[in-house]
Amino acid sequence: MRKSVVFLAAAFWASSCVASAEFAQDDTSAVHGSNFKPAQPLSRHVPQWATVLSDAGRVPAEEVLSDLTVVVARPAAQEAAFQRFLQDQQDRGSSEYHHWLTPEEVGERFGRSPEDIQELTNWLEAQGLAVTWISPSRTFVRFSGTAAAIGNAFQTELHYYSVSGDRRISVSSDPVVPSNLAGTIKAIRGLSSIDERPAYKFVHTN
Question: Which of 119, 147, 145, 150 is nearest to 131 (CA)?
Answer without folding.
Answer: 145
